[in-house]
Amino acid sequence: MDKMPAWADIVLIPLISLLLAAVISALVILAIGEDPWAAVKLMVDGALGSTYGWGYTLYYATNFIFTGLAVSVAYHAQLFNIGGEGQATLGGLGVALMCLFIPWPHWTLAVLGAGLAAAAFGALWAAIPAYLQAKRGSHIVITTIMFNFIAGALLNYLLVNILKPMGSMDPATARFPEATNLPTLHEILAPIGINFSKAAPANVAFLIGLVACVAVWLLIWRTKLGYEIRAYGKSESAAVYAGISPVKIIMIAMLISGALAGMMAVNNVMGEAERLVLNSTEGAGFIGIAVALMGRNHPFGVLLAAILFGFLYQGGAELALWTQIPRELIVVIQALVILFTGALDNMVRLPLERLFLALRRRQEG
Fold this sequence. Notes:
By secondary structure, this protein is mainly α. 75% of the residues lie in helices and 0% in strands. It has 16 helices and no strands. Helix 4 (84-101) crosses helix 13. The radius of gyration is 21 Å and the shape is globular.
């Protein structure tokens, strides 16, 4: 029998961990001479108090949805894919090639082609570490870390020497054609009477992210392949006894994981920058690890955690802009959230398990 209900594992534990991180963050802000309540109010107002703030929060959240889902799918096969940064980088390359060299008549076709290219480039970049793990026993953590740096170096070379427009000093591609520009949430919501900020970068990729959450849920919990992935993740020896091929599961799980990470580029490269630039991922691949951990590797949890980290990114930017709180402290706050929701998970989990177990025994008695 489970030690606690599923809702407690998915919602209650992360919520308590988040509250603990907030308390410690407040003490740190107080220690440097700032008002924690004023800081919280500024973060909430800046990230959630207007459609402009919501636009940036959802833009960041979209990136984290894709990278969080990428980590989650691999984790269900007991694979720790921390190569989302590199896979998203190569996904951006796929988006750029499709947008620059194919004359798309409309954004609906362009986003389909660019999304498939982003997924393919991300999947292929993940396939190499997956093969090394499946066939050679190379640890997936080490190889995916290495491939992050290789992807960055490769993109640097391509932008500086091949894709940069003639005469430009900026290591970036040319602007994508207007036909490939994705509609923003302002343009999507205006026809139904919702006045969303024109300046906010949130775009149709957020809706694609929601579809991806549903698709991953269906894959992991409603398909034979998802069952095999989870079975292999729970026990490799039992899975092999049941006729499940480890090589097959490792390759497929990492291909799907890499494809999801690569599709992040639809949001930041195609939707926001409308060109490919250096460091376009801005650390979203690593934040995806924290998002997956906090979301308990469940698509709904990943969605909520992604919105939370989107709030922290946008709210943190407002703090750095309007207060004396240094930008580095914003990183500390984010790190505290990751610490309590990840590394110190058992500090919250074990007492709650004992509490629910005691309540169940009392009900049964």
